[in-house]
Design goal:
Number of helices of chain A: 17
Strand order of the largest sheet of chain B: 1-2
Helix content of chain A: over 70%
Distance between the termini of chain B: 63 Å
Order of helices and strands of chain B: HHHHHHEEHHEEHHHEEHH
Number of strands of chain A: 4
Largest sheet of chain B: 2 strands, antiparallel
Oligomer: heterodimer
Largest interface: A-B, 64 and 69 residues
Low-confidence stretches of chain B: 372-381
Strand order of the largest sheet of chain A: 1-2
Distance between the termini of chain A: 62 Å
Order of helices and strands of chain A: HHHHHEEHHHHHHHHHHHEEH
Mean pLDDT of chain B: 84
Shape of chain B: globular
Radius of gyration of chain A: 25 Å
Number of domains of chain B: 1
Radius of gyration of chain B: 22 Å
Number of domains of chain A: 2
Structural class of chain A: mainly alpha
Chain lengths: 461, 381
């Protein structure tokens, strides 16, 4: 069994690379849409300010896009390097949407980016607007495939445990692509992504208006961003919780609502015992060189095999699990810090409300058409940090919420990692952290430079 | 269209090889040109042009790499898991080269002269390191990696980093490096008016000759190398379980496929001939023909490796029986049945689009490059 250090380091590495990726995807999504809309507006109205605003946001978009691509590469490599057991066990279903996406919309987006970036001057406005719209569309399609993959982790439909290959295999690929949890997940992710992107845009516009009250870029973009942000927060609030389809989901929803989960313990223990029976049948069958068929109730019992795997944290061989260990394992199936989760969730809801308020204020600012009020603009600059923290908090809370599972009820997280040495992990973690930090700081400084350059030097309020 | 599992697996393998070829061609251009940065030109404006010639398509190249990794993950999850878990340092070097690139590229434009040279060196060496890592991966795949799959299919890596740096893998790395540098140098010469053409040409001639020599030496070594052979019955349509077979290892077993199918010899021969043709065309200043020849060379080299190893994909040199072969490391039939049509449709489109995209920079950024030229003329070097 892997040591606690290796487990912790592996978890950190996976979380860090995922976080980096999930930070920049929303920005590239939202900014691509903004650029497309601004260009179309220019085509319709002929107002050159829209075109300039579009070019400005396109520069910021390209940075976000580059970083989201690079972090995508790191995330894909991480699944194999650090999470290799998970990759083998669940890759059949999890990676299917990822591969389809990589070969379709993601590749299209990368191809379109070249002409998009280098063709501002040489392409006709109509052609370029078409490029931007296609780019935005392919990025959104990409995001949908990503959502499909991550939704499967929570709601592993369409897959079954194959005793011959000892892993989850697809039984029905369409179920994976039409996951019933997909709509709730999509609303949540799109809402979060647009909230972050809109927060970014509102903050930048507010800063521009702070330094130049009638800044044209701010004027053209603020209204759009404010309405998008408002809608996004409403999506987040309204998507609600679907009926929990499994025990794990019930447990997770209860934790968020502050309902005590101890009552679920006996149900969990039953699942564990069921899974243990399946595991024992499986091992007996394998030792028997598969001459006799598997017992009839194996098919029904194997759905609980994931629960039996929880015991592996203490017992490498599950054969002789006693009652006390089963109780321990059942306890571990509950989220570890329910208080933190409940209060964290409340905090996030509050933050969402404040963010909604900020977006309404931003919309008011945009609608007023007069000179920007200094007090309001200073307040609006908070939009980015607020929404960024909202997204971060949401990711952290959901990670903690899904403890101990990586794939709900199928694979616990501690079982998913590769057996690397702590030394290797420290080296790769430091390298990733260093380069990631360097990349982010460069991105931030380039963004700051670009934003500053649109304000005439010396203009300040 | 209901294909049986065996056909699906063969198709998935073929698509993997084709994606690797596409990736090799694109990455060869990108890494090759980056690695040549410091060696080919000493003057800053030349380097600007060099970077400008591949900048528009750098995202494209990254997309190929992501596509290949995603395909491995989805269609060959065992190979993906074992390969990435065991060869972590090599994969890390490739990823780092991609992470460092935007760093160096963005900083170099903003920095002063002395820092620019340092960033150029950083770019060049990280790209060179990535090329060497690719070669090391290929070499270790042929030789076998020391991994073991236990009865619960946990992956245990029985070696350490230095085990991956064995002499055979280093030879293959040298071969791959010379090939990709050859490819990159030929690509750079396609832009006729650049002033570094002479330097590129000299380098291409050297790299091409070195590659041919090293390829022949590698071939001789592989023919003596201990190859692998499945000694139990091969079941092609069962669920993917590598633990169920017996594998034997013996000298010269990699030549088995060539003995059964004499026509396979055509592949390494074509690789050598096209590399030779490429060098000849380069010598005669026929740059486009030379570049095409190097493309053919890369494709046939990858095909050679794949077909020499067939049906193995990732042999294990410590725990022979858990080697990963074509028949026991793929994903399920359901997965492949959905994935393969999508990829089968996408790959030709991707190839076509990549070909078109490499033409675009010559048209679109002519203006940009002219501007860069004019600006460069105003700066002193």
């Amino acid at each position: 069994m892997l040591s606690e250090t290796v487990l912790a380091l592996s978890q950190w590495q996976l979380t860090l690379t995922n976080l980096l990726h999930l930070l920049f995807v929303p920005l590239s999504l939202g900014l691509s849409l903004l650029v497309a809309i601004l260009e179309i507006r220019f085509l319709i109205t002929g107002d050159r300010h829209y075109l300039e605003a579009g070019r400005f946001w396109a520069k910021l978009f390209s940075i976000a896009f580059a970083l989201s691509m690079i972090s995508r590469l790191a995330v894909l490599a991480q699944f194999g390097s650090t999470g290799s057991y998970f990759a083998r066990y669940a890759g059949d279903s999890f990676a299917l949407p990822l591969a389809i996406e990589a070969f379709s919309s993601f590749f299209l987006a990368s191809v379109l980016f070249g002409p998009f970036w280098f063709g501002w001057v040489h392409l006709k406005p109509r052609q370029h607007a078409m490029l931007s719209s296609l780019l935005a569309l392919s990025l959104h399609l990409s995001a949908l495939w990503l959502i499909c993959a991550y939704a499967w982790l929570d709601h592993p439909v369409g897959a079954f445990f194959n005793p011959e290959s000892l892993r989850m295999e697809l039984s029905d690929s369409w179920q994976v692509l039409n996951n019933p949890a997909l709509s709730a997940y999509t609303l949540h992710f799109i809402g979060l992504a647009y909230a972050v992107a809109a927060g970014f845009i509102v903050s930048v516009c507010a800063w521009l208006q702070c330094n130049q009250a009638d800044h044209t870029i701010a004027r053209s973009s603020l209204g759009l961003a404010a309405s998008a942000g408002g809608v996004a927060i409403l999506l987040l609030a309204l998507h609600g919780n679907s009926q929990p389809a499994s025990l794990a989901e019930t447990v997770q929803q209860n934790a968020l609502r502050g309902i005590d989960n101890q009552t679920q313990l006996s149900a969990i223990e039953n699942h564990i015992r069921n899974g243990l029976a399946a595991y024992r049948s499986l091992e007996a069958w394998r030792e028997d060189e598969k001459n006799a068929p598997l017992p009839a109730n194996f098919e029904q019992q194997k759905t609980d095999m994931g629960y039996a795997l929880l015991l592996k944290r203490w017992l490498p061989k599950l054969q002789n699990a006693n009652d006390q260990q089963i109780r321990l394992a059942a306890q571990s199936a509950l989220p570890a810090q329910p208080q933190l989760l409940f209060w964290g969730h409340q905090l996030l809801t509050g933050a969402g409300l404040i963010s909604l308020l900020l977006f309404v204020l931003a919309g008011y600012q945009a609608w007023r058409r007069g000179a920007a009020q200094p007090g309001l603009t200073k307040l609006l600059q908070l939009a980015l940090p607020l929404n960024g923290l909202l997204a971060l908090g949401d990711i952290v809370i959901s990670r903690l919420l899904h403890q101990p599972w990586l794939v709900n009820e199928i694979l616990p997280a501690f079982l998913s990692y590769s057996s690397s040495s702590a030394q290797e992990l420290i080296i790769s973690l430091s390298l990733y952290t260093l380069t990631g930090a360097a990349l982010i700081s460069i991105a931030v400084s380039v963004i700051v430079n670009i934003v500053r350059s649109t304000v005439p030097a010396g203009a300040s309020q | 269209m209901n294909l049986d599992f065996e056909t699906l697996r063969l198709l998935a393998w073929a698509l993997l090889i084709l994606s690797l070829i596409g990736y090799g061609l694109c990455e060869g251009i990108s890494l090759g040109t980056m690695a040549l940065l410091t060696f080919v030109s000493r003057h800053d404006p030349e380097r600007q042009l060099l970077i400008a010639s591949i900048a528009p398509t750098s995202f494209l190249q990254q997309a190929w790499l992501i596509a290949v990794i995603a395909l491995l993950f989805a269609a060959w999850p065992l190979v993906y898991a074992v390969g990435f878990a065991c060869m972590q340092p090599l994969i890390l070097m490739i990823i780092l080269a991609w992470l460092i690139r935007p760093l160096a590229l963005i900083f170099r434009n903003a920095a002063e002269q002395i820092w620019r040279q340092r960033f150029d060196k950083l770019l060049a060496y990280s790209s060179l390191l990535a090329i060497v890592s690719l070669g090391l991966i290929a070499g270790n795949v042929i030789k076998g990696i020391p991994f073991h799959l236990d009865d619960q299919m946990h992956i245990v890596f029985l070696g350490d980093f230095w085990a991956l740096l064995n002499p055979f893998a280093l030879l293959i790395a040298a071969t791959a490096s010379s090939l990709l540098l050859f490819h990159g140098a030929l690509f750079l010469q396609l832009d006729q008016r650049a002033s570094f053409n002479e330097a590129c040409r000299a380098l291409a001639l050297k790299a091409g000759s070195v590659f041919i020599l090293l390829f022949i030496v590698s071939g001789l070594w592989v023919s003596r190398l201990e190859g692998y052979h499945i000694s139990s019955d091969i079941i092609t349509h069962a669920a993917s379980n590598p633990l169920l077979k017996f594998v034997k290892r013996g000298e010269e077993l990699w030549m088995d496929n060539y003995q059964h199918q004499i026509s396979l010899w055509a592949l390494p021969v074509i690789a050598i001939i096209s590399a030779g043709l490429g060098t000849w065309f380069c010598y005669r200043h026929k740059t486009y023909a030379a570049f095409l020849s190097s493309c053919v060379s890369i494709a046939t080299v990858i095909l050679t490796i794949a077909l020499t190893l067939f049906p193995f994909i990732l042999p294990s040199n410590r725990s022979l029986n858990t080697s990963l072969t074509l028949w026991d490391s793929s994903s399920s039939a359901g997965n492949l049945a959905l994935l393969l049509p999508v990829i089968g449709l996408a790959l030709p489109l991707m190839a076509f689009i990549s070909r078109w995209a490499y033409r675009m920079p010559n048209q679109l950024s002519q203006q940009n490059r002219a501007d860069a030229c004019a600006a460069a003329d105003n700066h002193s070097c």
